[in-house]
Amino acid sequence: MARHIISLYNLATACSVRPTLSNIEAYKYIPKRYIAGKMGKPSVYVTRQVNKEALDLLREHCEVTSWRGEGPVPREELLKNIENKDALFCMLTDKIDAAVLDKAGDNLKIVATMSVGFDHLDTEEIKKRNIKIGYTPSTLTDATAELAVALLLATSRRLFEANEEARTGGWQAWSPFWMCGPGLKNSTVGIVGFGRIGQQIAKILKAFNPKKIIYYNRSERKEAQEIGAERVKFDELLSQSDFISVSAALTPDTKNMFDDDAFRKMKPTAVFINTSRGALVDQDALVRALQNKTIWGAGLDVMIPEPLPLDNPLFKMKNCVVLPHIGSAAIQTRNEMGVVTAKNIIAALKGEKLPFELIV
User: Fold this and answer.
1) Residue 2 — very low, low, confident or very high, per pLDDT cuts 50/70/90?
2) What pTM did the predictor assign?
3) Beta strands, E only, the chain
4) Active-site residue, from 4, 61, 120, 325
5) Is 325 a catalytic residue?
């Protein structure tokens, strides 16, 4: 109905006739941007403060409104401001579900998330409404892989623990076995999830001269041969690996894949690193594994919930390093993610192919 009324409105405008409630009773159905007498720019709501490059790009093509407060946009603010918008620029902290989509209405053409993960999106509901989904899969590969390796080294070489000792008087004199941890040379590195990020982690770790790199993935990856990685079964990876790095996507099949049984199959000297999604790990099982010395240590950039409560037992363990989900937190990477998200939105509003469209 709205389309027919808009056509009437455009016809009346072309004939220099200003529509009124008396000649078009359903005037209220016309989106606000038509009321000015000509079609304005499409509208976008941005749920966080983002980089200037991304905003400038959007403003060339769109009317932009955004949440200017600190932290994630409150749910009630999102529901209030999404109404009648043509596009949504969101973050992994924003739950985009049927309630948000209902409030947005029929104008919404794209939900673009500034992330590679999309478990915060109700993809089934979005696609059912023929709304496109944009994301940023390739932009954060290097930054996340760098962080995974840094976290592995910080955990295994006890960097935070050593820094604390140096700052608080624990450093008395050089000692041959003080602050020692497992090294990568001649070790077996296991990577769970061998997509872009998993492959880049393997490439970086090769420089540390591990004995071998193995991976677990749903399918064989042709890139593995060039990297020198061998595909194995999940249980084999658990039992053979000295270091386990997780970079798998969160799906119903991978949720809680690291449970009590998985940790029991690992070496007592194993170092466990997770930079993917917290829900891949049964966190209580991880706590037990660390407390009972079932594994040597863990480094986490993701967990459940986020932020992790300060009284969580993981914070109390010297053999666990916890980071506040900073996998892609390189300045250049975050700027690029913002620009790619803006480009996804502009392409969708122009009816063009998205640079990075999520097909589910």
Assistant:
1) very low
2) 0.83
3) 43-46, 63-66, 87-90, 110-113, 132-134, 188-192, 212-216, 229-231, 243-246, 271-274, 297-300, 320-322
4) 325
5) yes
